[in-house]
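Notes from the 1:1 (GR / supervisor)

We went over the backlog. Supervisor wanted to see one worked example end to end before approving the batch request, so GR pasted a single chain during the call. The sequence is below; no edits were made to it. Supervisor asked that the structure be written out right there so they could see what the output format looks like.
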Amino acid sequence: MRYLSTSPRPAGLADYPFLAAELGATAETADQVAQIILNLATRWRDVGARLEGARRSAIRAIETAAARREIDAAEASFAGVINAL
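Structure output shown during the call:
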């Protein structure tokens, strides 16, 4: 995150509207908010990649299914990925 790599830190948050919006609600300082956002972004990147892979696999399986049971299996597989998150 650009804010955390800026030294010294900016005097204001005009260039960082999301940090400004979260300040006081998410954490007390802009540094704390930025670190929380960075940590969450890292976690969501992993979750997003797993979801996207499962989503695309389910779509492909459903598109090529020859029987209802294959669609049901694709849906169950996708639900399994979501439930494991």
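Supervisor's comment: Residues 2-84 form one domain.
Batch request approved.
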